[in-house]
Amino acid sequence: MQAPRYPQPALHIDGRWVTRASGGERAVLNPADGGVLAMLPLAGADEIRAAADAAARGWPAWRDTLANERCNIVRRAAEAMRQRSEAIAHTLTLEQGKPLAEAKREVGLSADIIDFQAEEAKRLYGRIVPPRVAGILSQSVLRQPVGPVAAFTPWNFPANLPARKLGSALAAGCSVVIKPAEETPGTCMAIVQCFLDAGVPPLALNMVCGDPPLVSSTLIAHEAIRKASFTGSVAVGKQLGVLCAERVKRFTAELGGHAPVIVCADADLPFALKASLAAKFRNAGQVCASPIRFYVHRSLHDAWAEQFTRGAQALRLGPGLDAQTQMGPLAHERRLHEMARFVADARDQGARVLCGGERVARPGFFFAPTVIAQAPPSALVQRLEPFGPIALLEPFDTLDEAIAKANALPYALGAYAFTRDLQTAHRLGHEIEAGMVGINHFGVSQPEMPFGGWKESGIGHEMGAEGLLHYTEIKTITVGVPQ
Ligand code: NAD
Questions:
Q1: Would you state the pLDDT for residue 1?
Q2: CATH class of this structure's domain 11-255+457-476
Q3: What is the separation of C-alpha 197 from the centre of its chain, rounded to a whole number of angstroms?
Q4: Residues 102-149 pLDDT 10s
Q5: Which of 203, 360, 415, 451 is the most exposed place for a label (fewest CB within 10 A)?
Q6: Distances 175 to 51, 205, 216, 224 between C-alpha atoms, Å
Q7: Cα 220–223–227 angle (5° rounding)?
């Protein structure tokens, strides 16, 4: 069978797909070889506003669609994604670089996320509160959709992150303008098409790409937009938070992390090593909840350093479409320069690079799996999210010390630990400051579970029952009788 081709990029504005726009165009690259896949049209300010206008006009009909019917439509979109998963995963790998098997898992999980949110639409319960004064017949607390939403998603999970935002917003009865990353528009286009084919009114679902600051400032300033939801860096999240705060618009944000892993003296070493290698280098480390700081008990430290380094060096790097590939390229060239900067700075500050540390000499944006020991707290890589295939390694002596180090950063998204002791597991679960703590595993991102960060890692949650609630407003209605 012939491999599917990369789609012609287009924007969905005011109920139709357009392949030309006033903001010019930019190339979508294949990170496995640097080649141009296609040209992406970029929306100018008028087209961005037109998308928000359309979302405003499309909202009432979608808002007033009965919850049961909305659920059915959104579930049909998930089913369409499953049926088209081969083609969507292929597009995803071409534009983002991750191995095809990872891309297929991502598409399947994205459909499950959409399904779960669709079901939750039927359970947007309110409550009846007993009145405290005479003459009041009923007091009810309801949840209603917040209104047209501006959604911003990055390039590391081109299916999963749009699925989280579109699934929840549409299931809740909101209309949407989504801006996927300009590096990875093809996967989002395919998902938008699944929702449209399933029966979401075309005006209620818009997709634009463009100059990111222009898109976000135009959408958030637009009077129709009631809420923004952003996934990306802390720096950009803060900027969008300010734009929303100035207009008192609702805002949720998932802003990355710097996840610690505490490997206790009683950990099952082979198990912890295998799980850690797989989690660290999944998607070349471009995962917000990726394990980064490995604090290993001193009794295991040297064995860990030797075996983890050997495992990292043995990984097969290559294009995501090659079935043998275990780790693909970084998603774009800027990341290569960032990785080199982190490594050079750590070296300058006395760290030891146990393996990797440099770009791989082949076409595309490949960076070698890297393990760095003894990077001081002042090193950039200890303070900023590397968002790439870099693991840090440090010994610890007491659990108090490990917990204090785990909690030392302003990031608090994912955190992990390995122990066979139930009491230690409970203590770590309670004392580590993070939105999600995984003990003896890394699978903290599940459709049924709320995903979100503490501290600078974000505001609010996606997925789980909480995911839908962030796209609603609370309203109280009291009905009295004339006395
Ligand atoms: P970046 O901050 O320029 O871009 C990240 C994403 O934000 C992209 O999708 C981009 O289009 C979007 N963006 C940038 N400026 C924006 C704006 N003003 N308004 C709206 N959207 C905007 O950085 P990058 O080089 O692409 O990625 C680097 C950093 O981004 C990483 O170090 C990581 O911290 C963060 N990141 C986080 C996640 C996550 O899942 N939390 C995902 C991707 C990137």
A1: 52
A2: alpha beta
A3: 25
A4: 999 999 999 999 999 999 999 999 999 999 999 999 999 999 999 999
A5: 360
A6: 11, 6, 16, 10
A7: 45
**CATH class assigned to 259-446:** alpha beta
202-219 residue pLDDT tens: 999 999 999 999 999 999
CATH 3.40.309.10 residue ranges of the chain are 259-446
The verdict on whether 288 is a catalytic residue reads: yes
Instruction: Please tell me if the CB atom of residue 152 comes closer than 6 angstroms to any atom of ligand 1.
Output: yes
Query: Mind listing the pLDDT tens digit for each residue in 146-169?
Result: 999 999 999 999 999 999 999 999
Catalytic residue among 47, 95, 102, 254: 254
3 state DSSP class of 105: helix
Assess contact for 369 and 375: CB atoms under 8 A: no
DSSP 321: T
Instruction: Categorize the per-residue pLDDT at 483 as very low, low, confident or very high, splitting at 50, 70 and 90.
Output: confident
What is the rounded CA–CA span in Å between residue 186 and residue 38?
A: 10
Angle at 97 between CA 445 and CA 295, to 5 degrees: 50
Nearest to 84 by CA among 102, 47, 110, 65: 110
334 CB within 6 A, ligand 1: yes
Long-range contacts from 308-311, C-beta under 8 angstroms, 24+ separation: 308/273, 308/276, 308/277, 308/371, 308/391, 308/393, 309/354, 309/355, 309/371, 311/273, 311/274, 311/277
Q: Can 456 be counted among the known catalytic residues?
A: no
Count how many Cα atoms sit within 13 Å of the Cα of residue 155 in the half-sphere of its side chain. Answer: 27
232 CA distance to ligand 1 middle (Å): 4
Between vectors from CA 203 to CA 201 and to CA 208, what angle results, nearest 5°? 125
Q: Is 269 exposed, middle or buried (0-12, 13-18, 19+ CB in 10 A)?
A: middle
**What sign has the CA pseudo-torsion 405, 410, 412, 413?**
negative
* Number of neighbouring beta carbons within 10 Å of residue 2: 4
Q: How far apart are CA 284 and CA 388, in angstroms?
A: 6
| From-to residues of CATH 3.40.605.10 in the chain | 11-255+457-476
Q: List, in order, residues 6 or more apart from 302 with CB less than 8 Å away.
A: none
